[in-house]
């Protein structure tokens, strides 16, 4: 039986597969399932050619396996293959006639979750008629959505199935262009009940459809031009639709409600119930539409204004001037200042803008609380709170390693490597068993296709360490060999791909696709050699405080160990330790260095910690001194280092300062402006004393290791930020997931570093404050808030960056104004003063009025009112020019009067 199936497959006798299967019993079919699965794996193996790849099986062989799988397997084994079997529908029909599986009906009913199917609504009706399936309403509605044709062929299509379409439509319904005119025609011909369809359109607003499908039903409702009488009859459904999560639905319903406000049957009390939620949404068109409808209700009806008035006060949850002004005008015109209204408004007192507050002074009894100026202390880089855990035993190490595998770009990795150096050989027959789950996790992680490079190195180190223990403890660790063999086989299959970098084997042979990776790999090899040698001398680069800092006192103590043991540090280990050292408070470390160290160590640290303003002593290790100079004073050139061999490295890489400009984007009409930053090209040169910096600046530039780079250069982030800006922030609306995630990870890391910004830091922060991603903008605002609190930000410089971008409309100004209103305004007196300086400097860069400049000026007006100050003198000159613009005249005059 198996031999016959192999014969049919190997000789591609597709015409013989059905006769062969017909003669099998149920038990024989079940017996064949493992064989069919094995054949399927064989024909689906990838065969690489010089220019492409294909599966090992031919088209006929794939068809043979598809048919055999369908006939012999149960639903679980067959899976959700909605395409292959049905490529030849006639053949499928023949198979169904003599052997329809009992699971076929459930299989077809589940097809609504499939990305694509090769059968359609007509096939489903045919199979239903023959008794093969019992279709669910969801199935019929879904497939009818994709089949706007032959609707008169079956009487149940329009009488029943069309209503399933309304309740369970396909996501592709809006893209079937034939449906809209077809529905209008069917309604006109009275083949579809008009009132029922109108009701179904409104019910779609709360059926959790995606926005395209919901929008289709809203457009269908509007296209039928419902009369006022029909709207009154559908009033409950209309009002219920106001709770929709889709703004298109709410806006459509608000438009139709307006048409019936004058009708005595209009339920204004019910509308008042929905109004607070409508006024609290972030979509401005919904809020303005709701206010417009509220005003029309007051115009057309005599009613007790208090219920609707109290609901109306919810508008002040939003800090938009146009929204608050419109709400205030309605209140002034139609709502008396009763006790209830005053109390309701008091809940929003702190939120009401200054110019609107003056309009409502008879309604607002108490004054807003005076914001206090914050008393800021210096923000230390290292504290007890961010001190990392110190491992104390081999058991600690084994429990900690999985954390490091999960998050290799965090301090967990450094803690794990430090623990390895101390406790790798502190093992016995009992404790050694703890390595097995860690080894398994490392193998499972490294076996994935896409693995962060630091994870590859860490997992490789764990695996090689586990294999060494296996030689010493073969009985206790017998399972490790099986785990490793399986992982090795998986990697062997991948090595056929030219772009695959080896991950298993000796750590020295692990693939490294870029200079950055080579630097990490060299440090990993050094660490592994220490572990193998049982060398417990501490790693210099291991951080002591999250996210990436080394205490200067600890650095001195570690160097003392090297000095006393007469061991020379690894050149990259030493440089990385210097780069990660927290330099905000070095007084204690200086005293310790003068007392404990001698020779080059002492002279180096006296210079590095700032006691010696210029480098002194013997420069036996130029890379150490150069790294100390760049880390301590990146913009300064020390003449004492002029004899060093680093002249070929462009000076931008030492200073971290690059030329940049925002220019008109001639080549892309969708993005009106482009951010250009000039980064020189550099290739690693062979030299006696290479800088760790060289690996990170060299071509090809490695973006995937950006987070690792930030944790290697926390004192001098300019190079990393410039690279991210050039690769991910040249346009304001880049939506690719990779770039967006990279920018988000970078801005989150910048928030954790908590150092004053350098020139590239201001460019990066000013740019991401305008980013299209809300989370990125929010994190950038948090950086600004913290830096203002600790008086470590230059708002003039930041404002200049944003202004240079925005004078060419690099990004919509609304992104910034919304961010200011929701996150940055009225946090404290200090923040309001900082905000005034920030906006003034943005406006100083502006020339001609840009889109939404009015909104920025309104925010500026509010900030000035809060600070009880006047516009910047140079800004006033611009306001005098801009007031000639009709849309800006009013706000400019307001600002000029201040």
UniProtKB/TrEMBL annotation:
DUF7824 domain span: 383-650
All residue ranges annotated as the DUF6493 domain in the record: 2-285
Cross-referenced Pfam families: DUF6493, DUF7824, DUF7825
InterPro entries documented for this protein: DUF6493 (IPR045472), DUF7824 (IPR056726), DUF7825 (IPR056727)
DUF7825 domain ranges (all copies): 655-897
Name the record gives this protein: D-tyrosyl-tRNA(Tyr) deacylase
């Amino acid at each position: 039986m198996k031999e016959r199936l192999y014969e049919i497959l190997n000789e591609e006798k597709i015409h013989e597969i059905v006769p062969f299967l017909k003669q099998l019993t149920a038990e024989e079919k079940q017996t064949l399932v493992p064989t069919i699965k094995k054949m399927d794996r064989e024909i689906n193996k990838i065969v690489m050619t010089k220019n492409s790849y294909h599966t090992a099986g031919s088209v006929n062989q794939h068809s043979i396996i598809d048919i055999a799988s369908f006939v012999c397997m149960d639903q679980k084994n067959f899976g959700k293959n909605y395409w292959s079997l049905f490529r030849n529908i006639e053949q499928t029909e023949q198979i169904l006639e003599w052997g329809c599986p009992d699971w076929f009906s459930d299989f077809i009913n589940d097809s609504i979750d499939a990305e694509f199917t090769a059968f359609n609504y007509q096939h489903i009706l045919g199979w239903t008629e023959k008794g093969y399936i019992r279709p669910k309403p969801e199935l019929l509605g879904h497939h009818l959505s994709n089949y706007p044709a032959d609707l008169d062929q079956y009487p149940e299509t329009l009488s029943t199935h069309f209503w399933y379409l309304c309740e369970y439509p396909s996501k592709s319904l809006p893209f079937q262009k034939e449906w809209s005119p077809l529905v209008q025609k069917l309604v006109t011909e009275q083949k579809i009940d008009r009132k029922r369809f109108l009701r179904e359109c409104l019910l779609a607003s709360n059926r959790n459809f995606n926005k395209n499908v919901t929008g289709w039903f809203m457009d269908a409702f509007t296209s039928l031009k419902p009369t006022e009488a029909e709207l009154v009859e559908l009033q409950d459904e209309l009002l219920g639709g106001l709770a929709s999560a889709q703004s298109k639905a709410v806006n459509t319903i608000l438009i139709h409600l307006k048409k019936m406000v004058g009708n005595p049957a209009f339920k204004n009390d019910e509308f008042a119930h929905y109004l607070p939620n409508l006024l609290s949404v972030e979509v401005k068109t919904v809020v303005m539409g709701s206010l417009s409808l509220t005003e029309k209700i007051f115009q057309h009806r005599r009613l007790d204004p208090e219920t609707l008035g109290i609901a109306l006060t919810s508008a002040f949850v939003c800090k938009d001037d146009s929204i608050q002004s419109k709400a205030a005008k309605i209140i002034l015109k139609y709502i008396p200042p009763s006790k209830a209204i005053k109390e309701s408004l008091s809940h929003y007192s702190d939120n009401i803008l200054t110019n609107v507050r003056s309009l409502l002074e008879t309604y607002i009894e108490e004054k807003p609380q005076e914001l206090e100026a914050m008393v800021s202390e210096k923000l230390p880089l290292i504290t007890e709170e961010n001190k990392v855990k110190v491992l104390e035993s081999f058991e600690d190490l084994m429990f900690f390693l999985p954390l490091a595998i999960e998050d290799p770009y965090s301090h967990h990795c450094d803690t794990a490597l430090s623990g390895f150096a101390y406790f790798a050989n502190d093992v016995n027959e009992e404790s050694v068993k703890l390595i097995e789950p860690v080894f398994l996790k490392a193998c499972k992680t490294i076996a994935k296709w896409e693995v962060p490079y630091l994870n590859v190195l860490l997992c490789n180190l764990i695996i090689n360490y586990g294999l060494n223990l296996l030689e010493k403890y073969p009985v206790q660790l017998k399972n490790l060999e099986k785990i490793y063999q399986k992982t090795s086989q998986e990697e062997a299959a991948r090595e056929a791909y030219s772009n695959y970098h080896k991950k298993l084997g000796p750590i020295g042979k692990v693939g490294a696709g870029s200079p950055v990776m080579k630097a990490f790999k060299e440090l990993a090899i050094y660490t592994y050699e220490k572990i193998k040698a049982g060398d417990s001398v501490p790693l210099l680069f291991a951080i002591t405080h999250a996210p990436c800092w080394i205490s200067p006192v600890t650095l001195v103590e570690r160097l003392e160990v090297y000095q006393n043991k007469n061991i020379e540090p690894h050149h990259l280990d030493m440089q990385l330790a210097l780069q990660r050292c927290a330099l905000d408070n070095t007084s204690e470390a200086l005293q310790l260095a003068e007392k404990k160290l001698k020779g080059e160590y002492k002279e180096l640290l006296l210079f590095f910690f700032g006691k010696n303003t210029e480098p002194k002593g013997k420069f036996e290790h130029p890379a150490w001194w150069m790294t100390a100079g760049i880390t301590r004073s990146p913009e300064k050139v020390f003449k004492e280092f002029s004899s060093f061999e680093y002249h070929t490295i462009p000076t931008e890489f030492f200073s971290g300062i690059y030329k940049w400009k925002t220019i008109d984007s001639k080549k892309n009409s969708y993005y009106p402006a482009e951010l250009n930053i000039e980064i020189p090209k550099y290739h690693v040169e062979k030299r006696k004393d290479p800088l760790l910096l060289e690996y990170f600046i060299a071509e090809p530039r490695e973006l995937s290791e950006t987070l690792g780079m930030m944790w290697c250069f926390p004192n001098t982030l300019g190079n990393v930020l410039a690279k991210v800006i050039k690769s991910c922030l040249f346009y304001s609306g880049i939506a690719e997931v990779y770039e967006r995630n990279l920018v988000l990870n970078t801005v989150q890391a910048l928030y954790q570093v908590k150092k004053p910004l350098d020139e590239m830091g201001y460019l990066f922060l000013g740019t991401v404050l305008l980013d299209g991603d809300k989370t990125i903008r929010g994190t950038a605002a948090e950086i600004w808030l913290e830096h203002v609190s600790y008086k470590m930000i230059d708002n003039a410089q930041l404002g200049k960056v944003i202004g240079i971008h925005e004078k060419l409309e690099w990004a919509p100004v609304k992104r910034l104004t919304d961010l200011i209103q929701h996150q940055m305004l009225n946090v404290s007196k200090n923040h309001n003063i900082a905000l005034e300086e920030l906006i003034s400097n943005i406006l100083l860069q502006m020339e001609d009025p840009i889109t939404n400049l009015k909104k920025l000026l309104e925010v500026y007006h509010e900030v000035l009112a809060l600070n009880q100050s006047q516009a910047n003198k140079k800004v006033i000159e611009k306001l005098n020019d801009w007031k000639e613009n009709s849309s800006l005249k009013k706000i400019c005059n307001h600002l000029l009067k201040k």
